[in-house]
Amino acid sequence: MKEKIVIAIGGNAIISEGQKGTVEEQYANISKMCPYIADLIEDGYRIILTHGNGPQVGNILLQSEAAKDRIPVLPIDVCVAETQGQLGYMIKQSLDNLLRERGIKKDVVSVLSRVLVDENDPAFKEPTKPIGPFYSKEEADKIAKTKNHAMVEDSGRGYRRVVPSPRPLDIIEQSAVKILADSGTIVITVGGGGIPVAENNGMLKGIEAVIDKDYASSLLANQIDADFLVILTGVPQVAINFGKPNQKFLSKMSLEEAKKYYEEGQFPKGSMGPKIEAGIEYLDRGGKKVIITSLDYLKDAIEGKAGTVIMK
Ligand SMILES: Nc1ncnc2c1ncn2[C@@H]1O[C@H](COP(=O)(O)OP(=O)(O)O)[C@@H](O)[C@H]1O
Ligand SMILES: NC(=O)OP(=O)(O)O
């Protein structure tokens, strides 16, 4: 078997900008994504897939709040668990069917996973994780006033609700994920950054937050001894001076260069910033290689022919 790779799938790979997020739309997007993953499985790589859940977790919360007169509102950790279930199912169904079509016998499992956070993480005082649909400024102001939700402008695309996003400290199900991945099973896990839990007298309890999937995927990659971490997003490569006339796409960055560019503010907080920081943290914790690219360049990037590679 070839290398063990954690692949983090960007939120917009499952619900694209402008889509409502119907199940049909999500299946259509997932089935566009699966051939790229199946190619790697066919080549013998051991794959652990993680995914975002911002749009989906916000939608579940909205559904729950809309029915609050009849049915008790769900806490956010339970909504995150629901997104792991629904997205894990949809990805598994699509990937499994594709592998069957290609005559590849491989188990694909989704592991509901909890991720330890610190209840005193400063993130609880300052919500930053955008979830759910986009609103106009007027709609957002009204929601902020009537529902007391924190709302922010999200990367020029409209306004969204934001919830606390504490740092992941430990992937509770890491051993099970490692055993499965090492045995050649394709694992879907740490969806939506994982279900946030905190420790209290040695016991775990659910916490209302949404963890960033790039930070959680980075930690998972270290904890299961992955050979490398791949972060998939909307661009084939990372750039410096992004969007400016002197924009320059990079095929590789040393860890030191990544840190320098990050400090210079080359990577915005709401988009590329967390991906670069997640990569830096993975390498600082002993990881070997990080690749940032888009789905269509995935295979080439793994073969060293595309993407942006960050290494020590
Ligand atoms: N320096 C940069 N290099 C490349 N892309 C960047 C850079 N800064 C911001 N971006 C933008 O950030 C996007 C990735 O962030 P985002 O869309 O929030 O992630 P996700 O794919 O996880 O949903 C890229 O598609 C690109 O449009
Ligand atoms: N939980 C999370 O990081 O989701 P998105 O990638 O959809 O923002």
UniProtKB/TrEMBL annotation:
InterPro entries: AceGlu_kinase-like_sf (IPR036393), Asp/Glu/Uridylate_kinase (IPR001048), Carb_kinase (IPR003964)
Record key words, sorted: Kinase, Transferase
Superkingdom, natural source: Bacteria
Catalyses which reaction(s): hydrogencarbonate + NH4(+) + ATP = carbamoyl phosphate + ADP + H2O + H(+)
Gene3D superfamilies registered for this protein in UniProt: Acetylglutamate kinase-like (3.40.1160.10)
Pfam families, alphabetized: AA_kinase (PF00696)
Biological or metabolic pathway of the protein: Metabolic intermediate metabolism; carbamoyl phosphate degradation; CO(2) and NH(3) from carbamoyl phosphate: step 1/1
Residue span, Aspartate/glutamate/uridylate kinase domain: 4-294
Any one GO MF annotation of this record: carbamate kinase activity
PANTHER family found in the cross-reference section: CARBAMATE KINASE, CARBAMATE KINASE-RELATED
Protein family per UniProt: Belongs to the carbamate kinase family.
Protein name per its UniProtKB record: Carbamate kinase
Organism: Tissierella carlieri
UniProt gene name: arcC
